[in-house]
Amino acid sequence: MSACGNGLSGYQKGGGVILTENSRLRSTSSSVVCLLMLFVFSLCTDTSGTRVPLNPTQLLKIKKVGTLVKKEEDFSVRLSRAKMSGVGAVFGLIGAGIEAGLRSSNDAKLEEGLKPILGDYDITKVTAENLNKRINSQKVFGSSDIASVEDSEALRKMGIDGVLEVTFKEWGLRLCSSSSVLEQVQVGLGVHGRIFLLGDGSTIWERNDLYLDGECRRVEEFRLSEGMLKNALSRAADNLAGRVVNEILFP
């Protein structure tokens, strides 16, 4: 954490802090390094894989499961940021940082243009409904219900003794790697899933996953065709729910 502090140094004068030229340079370099660390981490982190494998007998401990879906960020577009050219790196950390900032700004403009189309669309509600439907239809547990709260006592009053929690780390549109020249995007859902017991809070299954819809289109198509973005997100959410349930049933 210290590497990403404010990086300020200098000397006191009249109750304030006067920065020397060297300290300003160190502050700028520190900020750029932190920006690049966060940017590279967002591109390179592997979001797929089982972290806690499930023993099928553990499912028997849960008579009624609650499906709880949350999100950590709003709708996002990762198009320009996924196409770092490497030109900025020729000019060192500051040059790469400037390029990363410009590309992030370009994506933010695309996001703002698409958010009005989404309106009050709730990816967590859609996913919870799909998960609940699939769990009940495939009889993964005795029964299932959507958990609208996180409070353990309230969940117990609903008869729930285990929770399937799915958290969206990222949801929106991502660059299609096979069509980078055309700048086409697809729906991408990055999630963290786990099952834990309400009794002792122990996690009996945990997995990170990145679901890519695979249907590549230009951003303009999502903006100009009414309902296309919502439909694509809902389809991806349903397919993601199916993948989660399959991972539980066939670990």
Look at the structure and name the CATH superfamily of the largest domain. Lipoprotein like domain
The end-to-end span amounts to 36 Å
Overall average pLDDT: 77
Provide the gyration radius in Å.
22 Å
Number of strands: 10
Bin the strand percentage: 25-35%
* Parts with pLDDT < 50 across at least 5 consecutive residues: 1-47, 84-100
- State the CATH class of the largest domain: Alpha Beta
Task: Write the CATH architecture name of the largest domain.
Answer: 2-Layer Sandwich
Query: Can you tell me the overall shape?
Result: elongated
Explained architecture:
By secondary structure, this protein is an alpha/beta fold. It has two domains: 2-44, no CATH class; 49-83 and 115-249, 2-Layer Sandwich (Double Stranded RNA Binding Domain), CATH 3.30.160.150. It is built from six helices and ten strands, in the order ββαβββααβαββββαα.
